[in-house]
UniProtKB/TrEMBL annotation, chains A, B:
Pfam families recorded: TrkH
Protein name: Trk system potassium uptake protein
Family: Belongs to the TrkH potassium transport family.
Spans through the membrane: 7-27, 39-59, 71-92, 134-154, 180-201, 229-252, 273-293, 322-344, 393-413, 455-480
Claim: Transport is one of the keywords in the record: yes
Superkingdom of the organism of origin: Bacteria
GO molecular function, one term: potassium:chloride symporter activity
Coiled-coil regions listed: none
GO cellular component: a single term: plasma membrane
Record: residues binding K(+): T112, T113, G220, T315, N431, V432
Length: 482, 482
């Protein structure tokens, strides 16, 4: 039997911690004097108490380490427990959401997807906006720790290529997950503070700047206005672009930079490929925008830049309704969302390094095909890619694509049209945020969808955040035996 | 230097043979007394003469066999040379097409895609309809021979899993490609004749029955009416379903059946998976149709059956405009087209066996992930799938999906909307035929597209028919060196 107590203990502590963070919005609403603070008091009380009880109930089973199966269970169940409790303020608070909407919003927050079912964001009490920001900000740091500590250990989705590297850099000095997490946290907090200050400098209120900094550095994408970043001017767009870009880079490089390493970012193949892809897409889309809507102007460049970086980093802010930019831009934004940022960041989707490994393999194979006597091996960052990593990456890609197909069909069963179904499936599994079409596109939101569709999308965000394979492992009957 | 003469010799002979088949439509138009025969005379003369000249010019370089590179070159150039000459009757004849349309129609014919740029099919002279049927019929037999003889040798797209098997069955007795081809041809002709007789029995005119038999057994999908199979009744639909299904099965099994083997079809894993998938999709779509349009009736079942088998086998006939069947059916038809039939048939797309191999690999990996001490190897038909085959299949899938993305973006650049671009890319690369939407959907056709889009689609059909990887090998600079 799988002993779930060590997992329960950690989950309990994390849930209790989440409850503590609810005191932030409580204070915000108290300070604003808007009378909405009791919802957060109530939520915090329930969450802290339940979390503590779970931890206490499991405390007698705590061991010094976790088995592989327990690690799988922990990695996945945390992304169900936290949104379950994170949903409480939406049910009890000013939004007065039903369970479906509240769970969707919390899952979308904690997985940093950023799709919202709330409308009238501009009129929400500050506590609620802050809570959405906190959910994404906590999700973001959780994702980096998961990507750097847990996924490489679990050998999921080819993340093991980063294992030796992360441990070379940090493992010898900082062997334990908690210490890795603390190093990363310092950088994460620093980036968030810098981002908030920069937003404030562009004229954003300190409150909006803080919440947006939290949803920028987590590449989450929740905004405080129904117009998303359309509510702000050029300054905020450039600041947002810079920090979304920084948030989609591998955080281990920042650790190395602080350690005095020379240009670690520039020497990282996935960073170079990510930057190059952005340059190409921004040029193509600016050119298209210049020819159709804006003429050759700063605004054409800025709109292209902001939205490309937003979608490719998986943030999902929109500064304009790019559904109106013509078919080329629409198709580009769909496929850009399927590329994604760098591994070891808060970004999501297939991710640049997987394409690099897949393309390296295809290149080696093509050479092998016409020169069968030669020996061609795929390389990533100069090292031969092992069959193990290759198969993991391949499995991730196939499962991702097939999942987009299956989720699209399920969504279409609930009556959503083809574009909404396919783009909804893709944006949820890739944790990007906006889909295509008038309903869930950059100018729409997910409020009008039926409940079944919302649950399908909530599960999809969960599956996508766990890099597909973790969920596949969990649903295997064999996993639960002996 | 690559000696292209042996390739040129074979191409020349094939082109001349194509010219000879133009005498069929010539006779048909002469017999119908419609005055359209001179176009075929002219086309035949040009084609036979040019083909003969090419063959003669290359005859001095003929060797007893082909090198690997020459085989790659032959396999690909034949799918450019034949449509180039096959386009002549469309330019010179009653359709009076321009070069773009004529090449598109011929490429769509010979690759058995079945997308058409011609309208007013019902009023076309018989010779022209027969020519479209002949193009697909020749393409169909060419595909089977390519899939059974050439692709396994080239180790492209995982087709090498069928190498040992095909040679076990036939290689020892019939070691040469020409003899394999002749065995297959007997079956191909027999099936075509049976299909034509069955269509005639349902009340189709002998001419329509013959042309449709040719485009059914080749899973091509060209029809003699703008309404496709909407022009016919229940009998034709059931006959069509049966023969489209038979045409999408591996032809090597028919050879075994004639050789007295016991139930070779039932013992083939891809046949079972293909049939099961069809059953599930037909049930789901009949149920949806019964609930929305037709009630629980024979017509709901028949419409579902015919169109599912048509799209999954890659034939592309439509008996109704399934764009009107609601979002679930639309999404289903899109993804069914990305499954495809069995390898070693005239069917196309990703194909069932590749999904089976990919899923087997994912299953083995998932078990490995939670039980690292065990040894789990993916199996197909009871045998361990080698890393070589695994990588080929994976490369095919990735290249296919990425190509759909790239072609979609290119099509959207020409101004096509999102659904038309994405479904057009998929239907061309998968050689299915109809796309989605009002323009290129089952009730539309490709006539109204701009010329650039038509060329992009023509190239996509070519790339898809060559199972992606052959083209990748050819465009490598290294291929052409030394
Ligand atoms: K996001
Ligand atoms: K077809």
């Amino acid at each position: 039997m799988l002993d779930v107590r060590p997992v329960g203990y950690v989950i309990g502590l994390l849930v209790a911690t989440l409850g503590l963070t609810m005191l932030g919005p409580l204070v915000a609403d108290l300070a604003a004097g808007n009378g909405h603070w009791p919802a957060f008091l109530e939520s915090a009380a329930i969450t802290i108490m339940t979390g503590t009880l779970i931890a206490m109930a499991c405390a007698n089973g705590v061991q010094s380490g976790l088995t592989l199966k327990q690690t799988f269970l922990l990695t996945s169940s945390v992304w169900i427990a936290l949104p379950a409790f994170g949903a409480l303020p939406f049910i009890l608070g000013a939004t007065d959401s039903n369970l479906t909407d509240a769970f969707f919003e919390a899952m979308s927050g904690i997985t940093t997807t950023g799709a919202t079912v709330l409308t009238g964001l501009d009129d929400l009490p500050q506590g609620m906006l802050l809570w959405r920001g906190i959910l994404q900000w906590l999700g973001g740091i959780g994702i980096i720790v998961m990507a750097m500590v847990f996924l490489p250990e679990l050998k999921v989705g080819g993340m093991q290529v980063f294992r030796s590297e992360a441990f070379e850099t940090m493992g010898k000095i900082l062997p334990r997950a908690a210490e890795i997490a603390s190093r990363i946290s310092v950088i994460y907090v620093t980036l968030t503070v810098c981002c908030a200050l920069a937003y404030t400098a562009t004229g954003m209120t300190p409150f909006d700047a803080s919440v947006h900094a939290m949803t920028t550095i987590s590449t989450g994408g929740f905004a405080n206005s129904d117009a998303s970043f359309g509510a702000y001017g050029a300054g905020a767009h450039y600041v947002g672009t810079l920090f979304m870009f920084l948030a989609a880079l591998p955080f281990v490089r920042y650790v190395q930079m602080l350690g005095g390493s020379h240009m670690p970012l520039l020497r990282d193949a996935q960073v170079r490929a990510f930057a190059m892809t952005i340059v190409v897409c921004v040029l193509a889309i600016s050119f298209s925008l210049a020819n159709t809507i804006h003429g050759f102007s700063e605004i054409a460049f800025r709109e292209a830049l902001f939205n490309v970086v937003s979608i490719m980093s998986g943030t999902g802010y929109a500064s304009a309704d790019y559904m109106l930019w013509g078919p080329f831009c629409v198709a580009m934004f769909f496929f850009i969302g399927l590329i994604g940022g760098c591994a070891g960041s808060t970004a999501c989707s297939v991710k640049v390094f997987r394409y690099q490994i897949l393309f390296a393999s295809i290149g080696a194979q093509v050479r092998q095909l016409h020169s069968p006597s030669g020996i061609f091996q795929p390389r990533y960052e100069g090292r031969v890619v092992s069959g193990d990593v290759m198969n993991s990456v391949m499995a991730f890609f196939v499962v991702f694509i097939v999942s987009v197909g299956i989720v699209s069909v399920l969504l279409s069963l609930t009556g959503l049209d083809f574009i909404t179904s396919v783009s909804g499936a893709a944006t949820a599994l890739a944790n990007v945020g906006p889909g295509l079409g008038t309903e869930i596109g950059p100018a729409g939101n997910f409020a009008g969808l039926n409940d079944t569709a919302k649950w399908i999308l909530s599960i999809s965000m969960f599956v996508g955040r766990l890099e597909m394979m973790v969920v596949l492992v969990l649903i295997t009957a064999r996993f639960w035996r002996s």
